[in-house]
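Risk register update: the risk that structure generation would not scale has been downgraded. Supporting records follow, first protein first.
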Amino acid sequence: MGTSVQVTPLCGVYNENPLSYLVSIDGFNFLLDCGWNDLFDTSLLEPLSRVASSIDAVLLSHPDTLHLGALPYAMKQLGLSAPVYATEPVHRLGLLTMYDQYLSRKQVSDFDLFTLDDIDNAFQNVIRLTYSQNYHLSGKGEGIVIAPHVAGHMLGGSIWKITKDGEDVIYAVDYNHRKERHLNGTVLQSFVRPAVLITDAYHALYTSQTARQQRDKEFLDTISKHLEVGGNVLLPVDTAGRVLELLLILEQHWSQRAFSFPIYFLTYVSSSTIDYVKSFLEWMSDSISKSFETSRDNAFLLRHVTLLINKTDLDNAPPGPKVVLASMGSLEAGFARDIFVEWANDPRNLVLFTETGQFGTLARMLQSAPPPKFVKVTMSKRVPLAGEELIAYEEEQNRLKREEALRVSLVKEEEIKASHGPDDTSSEPMIIDTKTNHDVVGSHGPAYKDIFIDGFVPPSSSLAPMFPFYDNTSVWDDFGEVINPDDYVIKDEDMDRGAMLNGDDVDGRLDEAAASLMLDTRPSKVISNELIVTVSCSLVKMDYEGRSDGRSIKSMIAHVSPLKLVLVHAIAEATEHLRQHCLNNICPHVYAPQIEETVDVTSDLCAYKVQLSEKLMSNVIFKKLGDSEVAWVDSEVGKTESDMRSLLPMTSAVSPHKPVLVGDLKIADFKQFLSSKGVQVEFAGGGALRCGEYVTLRKVGPTGQKGGASGPQQILIEGPLCEDYYKIRDYLYSQFYLL
């Protein structure tokens, strides 16, 4: 049998809940994502709590709450202690996302599910990998290799490939095949015939009807229309994910049109977010990287976007129409919720949603059809204590301090008595005659007169009252005095405070206002009141989620053609629709398990370990193919002296094999290649490529159907035998490896 693989969903199947899945590969347990929702519903984490202690590694795919929001809580409360793997942007932007979540909630509630220290502890030991980097696990995971690949949904977002004994398990959720302004498209199509593909059906029922250019035009026209009539525009966004694409769209449009309307990006960590993003250009699209290499132009040097970190700055901004991108996208907390309540009753204003709101949130309610005319909203804020409340609080704190001081003094007394050991006469009081001056003279020195004793009783063996003395005997070795390293360790809270205030430390930098909020120890309380908000403003939803649509999902799965397929993260209707499609057209083994239902997706193939003999390898000629090398080998199976299977040279003559072309040609890429060689080329009907005046190329699938089903494909060259024919054929051969 092949590598043993079991998949158990812990959250996020048959619904839109956060993503969290347990995958066991030969007994090694991976947690794929550790998400939470903006409601921070602890009941969603109950399945995770039952297996957290048995998890060996955590793989994070995207830097938003739905994919990593539960990580601090799981490590603090659920016993999760496994190493965490992610790309550098997912680590950095995910950390800022959780900071923003915590600060947003701390301002409106007594949030205690996790603290800033818990967030730091969860992220400080994340192992960061680059795209396509093969990381070999050790210990219990010996023989397993993990590697992140481009997902195309968020900056640093990853498709994870897990390899064991030559079999691949691919985890691909929330990917996007389309190239965007700041991201390249996914590389999922580069994987062919993996043993297992775990993917989502989130957009299986959705088909995009508009091209990117048309969508962007509608997006910008809608915003401009409301600004020109004196209205404000609010875009509820995430902290550091899809908001980056929106910022680039607005920045480029404002540069081209020279608009005077201000744009504000408002989160508790907006400055830190953009600072980090400016250093992640190598993770972005080819166009952004090339622009920086040629002209040193950083796309995220935002000239038309003002970064704000508190709402007071927005309130003090010059009056007039404005565009505000504010967190949170769910409107459950954060600045976006406050701004919505203020702007909702003005019909000139616009609230523009760029993604589907999470289930049960205010954003989802406003996106319903028809939208509500009124919504009940609970508004909360934290205010400093004053008057009698402040006096009562201070008295209570003083009382607690006195009790603590008394407890500490009693403990010290006990330690002092214990250090002197038992003394039968120590309880006898020392009588001092204060009426008559007298000297107590001993061999130790001068006299002691009228000494007042308080706080300790000297032993009877002493000649005169004296203060306690403890002999601190140091231990020495060949290198000097032996020290205790713990005495020189800087406390965590001191390090965190220093990092927050040190603006030169990129790894620890936070916005000044966010840092001051963290360090604010003034006594405060949360007050709440319910409001009925009249929704007179315009409510518009446009698709900027950055996910592949249903048609593309089906095409990509067909191209990958996995041996076994597991579907997760979608409503029941979408999951069942994609399951039936894949069963009928792509793969006979399709699974859609329920929460805590384990499915065994162990490969039916048999894998054997063989040794390549030196005699065989000495005659093999390798050719480089990407990051690997390939060669054609004719051999027979034998055994070595240690009784291990080995591939040995053939003992009889071998007939020549047919030439094999190795590679995956994309017609669109080949068209660009021919154009660079000076060949006039254009697409003809049916996906054919017309090269020059006489030659035509067609890509044909294994069943003769043009367009290509999954499996081996043929490329047909049609045309007369002329100079152009042979030249095009040579160019075509150069795109493959001939074995």
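Supporting record for the second protein:
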Amino acid sequence: MRSILKLLLSYHGWMYEAHGKMSHTTKVWLALVKIFAGRKPMLYSYQACLPRLPVPTIHDTMQRYLESVRPLLSDLQFQRMAALARDFEHSLGPRLQWYLKLKSWWASNYVSDWWEEYVYLRGRGPIMVNSNYYAMDFLYVTPTPIPAARAGNAVYAILLYRRLLSQEQIKPLMVPGTLIPLCTAQWDRVFNTTRLPGEGQDCIQHVSDSKHIAVLHAGRFYRLRLYHSGRLLRPRELQAQFQHILDDPTPPVPGEEHLAALTAGDREPWARARRTYFGSGKNQQSLEAVERAAFFVTLDTTEQGLTGPDPGRALDRYAKALLHGQCHDRWFDKSFTLIIFQNGKLGVNAEHSWADAPIVGHLFEYMLATDAFQLGYDVNGHCKGEMDPDIPPPQKLQWEIPEECQQVIQGSLRVAQALADDIDFHTFPFKQFGKGLIKKCHTSPDAFIQIAIQLAHYRDKGKFCLTYEASMTRLFREGRTETVRSCSIESCNFVRAMMDPAQNPQQRLALFRVATEKHQALYRRAMTGAGIDRHLFCLYVVSKYLGVDSPFLKEVLAEPWGLSTSQTPVQQIELFDLKNHPDYISCGGGFGPVDDNGYGVSYIIIGEDLLTFHVSCKISSPQTDAHRFGAHIRSALLDLLALFSLGPK
């Protein structure tokens, strides 16, 4: 049955059919998938049935690559690049491809282990901003203003999720609206996981279980035990534990207050400091308590959210607080850090190497829904339920940090603060229209937004750029991501038409249709293993293993991504009641810019009528301004909708 299901799941023809028009072949295929999928699958039930990620042919990848860069290059530049590609295709390429095909036969996934190692773990710069990302709380609602109570419910909800995960009772993830399973391998390391710094390369430490969490407040570290008398602490008991930490007047010992800055700066100083100063005694024991914790919690000393006289700027501050904070109040190496602010707002900062954003997003959605709709608070804003007064308080961790180590800490803090101070952020809700109205235009909401971003970028900079949109490859075993190169010949033709006053609306609309159809085709290719960038990346890795140089691959992998974009999916819409409680939904999350002169854009489609954008860039770049680009995105969305004469009433 597994073999038959694996064979069935290798068919992707359903993805290329017109919306609402299903072929006879696909109907039969769906019926067979339903028969062989089983009735009550568990989280990992389909793992052995998922097909392996296919290796595209060299010829196809070269053709698709050249097509993707054509609108970005002059005729002379394109001729040169085409010559390099042809030479690679007929000389070195087949040799590298042979080794890659060989790997694909024995490895579960020919990309994922190299992607984790070379893109993440071998990076020597700060992971704060450059790699880590964040998720935000409800935008307009704060269930309680009491930080200890919010922490109590949030942590309890996360631990309920961990219990479901350990028992594999989380429903297997499916392609929305279908019975097609997605890979769930990344759920293995949600909890009890830490990235450890190494000299030359980091590694990921995952322990099978952890019965405590690590908590940081005002520069002091604590171990908070999650069990008492063989049972999990209840929300009211967790609230009391967090309140004890908040009320503790004990000052941090020398070096402790900024200790977490080691995880925010460059990796090599942190690796050397860990080996030199944290290999024995109190420091080793305390560091192990942090690294072996189920997850990390920061009780922040600031207030965030829609506060103050300028709510727009308040959201920008909120985003920066989640992305980097004060650079010494998050343990950026933990799989995720839950951040509780002084006014009850919360958020998550997540490390990227162990998994991609949808995995943390799935946990975050469960936590928000459980906190708001199941656990709740009493009339005074405290957690509900009883508490055992005999539960021992959290244990303050002990450190002995020598002067030399303190100097390393301060060096890491300076590097991290310089990076954080250079980040410009603009987070804004777009309320004029949403998915509901876009669907009336008979186009994909994601394609609509991506084309709008292309138009906004051209208006912002007066040129096109290499654009990265993250797509998932979890239709395949141990799949992670692939790149959709959203700046296409078709999207550029449409943008030029929008900038040309001589073009009439009908011509523009026709070009828009072609551009969105092309975008959807590119997205489908990426999802089905026919993308460009992971194949080229792996060919480059093989060339390095063999010690051979490829001018083509070296040039391709050095190209800057001037625009990096990602959609945050809402994966468990059934947990939320958007009709009766429209404000009870996360407003998504964001990440830092990939290129020094580029933009990072994350967006979430919430219900039928709301989009939220998170735009980042570098202040030091004279070419970028997050607020200016945000304004261009707003106007581009409205201009696109105007083509259909369906503007908001």
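The longest strand covers residues 610-618. On this basis the risk owner (M.S.) recommends closing the item.
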